[in-house]
Amino acid sequence: MAGIIDFNGVEFVNTFVSLFVALLLGTLIGAERQYRQRNAGLRTNALVALGASAFVDLGMRLMGNQGATQVLAYVASGVGFLGAGVILKEGMNIRGLNTAATVWCSAVTGAFAGADHPAEAALMCGFVLAGNTFLRPLVNLIERAPIDESRTESIFEMRVTTDEGSRDALRELLDERLEAAKYPAREIREMEREDGVEIVATLAATSVEAEELDAIAEELGRLTNVAHAAWSSRASD
């Protein structure tokens, strides 16, 4: 009964507009995710935007700008937990980071709408769509560019396979060759293999000249007691 008596038509229309704008813009963001068959698609992004808008609008109705500010902090942390649910780890690969970030941006879009800033909400929506659409060709271009080992920070390893009797001598020789080439080993470890012992030297350097490591591997590979010699790299943490 109190809700009927205290009904404010102007505030109701304001809330309706805020929720409608949030739902519409969240749907636009989610449509792009749905088209690309992501875990968090159209309905998820639309509901996240709608929920964020409703929380912020309710906070403003109850306590003004202070209430909206307090609610925003909880919305940001709450949506962070929601976004973590779409992040999947498959072996060494992690999927869903971009989708989780999009869900978070949908919440910000809804928060703008709930705070009675529809123009800013629309602007945020446009930037999210632009980031997910127009930056894709740039990402593909960067990923397809050839890697220059001398300009990247990676972990480099020199691997040499030998027999049990030659392990100590070859370990010393490997260390000497790397020192002479100005690529000192940060760590040298040994691993037992069916065909002998693999000596793995992890270099202290985070960038190398590929030709120099190729020369060392080729030199060691020509030794009679060496079954295999090669180097590899992987991205540093």
Explain what this protein looks like in three dimensions.
The structure is a single chain. The strands form two sheets. Strands 4-5-3-6 form a four-stranded antiparallel sheet, with helices on one face. A two-stranded antiparallel ribbon has the order 1-2. 30% of the residues are buried. α2 packs antiparallel against α4. With 237 residues, the chain is α+β, with helices and mostly antiparallel strands. A hairpin with a 2-residue loop joins β4 and β5. The protein is rod-shaped, with a radius of gyration of 29 Å. The chain has two domains: 143 residues, no CATH class; 87 residues, Alpha-Beta Plaits.
How do the helices and strands line up, and which of them pair or pack?
Layout: H1 2-5, H2 9-35, H3 42-84, E1 88-90, E2 93-95, H4 97-114, H5 118-133, H6 136-144, E3 154-162, H7 167-180, E4 185-193, E5 196-203, H8 210-221, E6 226-235
Antiparallel strand pairs: 1-2, 3-5, 3-6, 4-5
Key features of this structure:
about 240 residues; about 60% helix; rod-shaped; Alpha-Beta Plaits; 8 helices; two-stranded antiparallel ribbon; single chain; alpha+beta; four-stranded antiparallel sheet
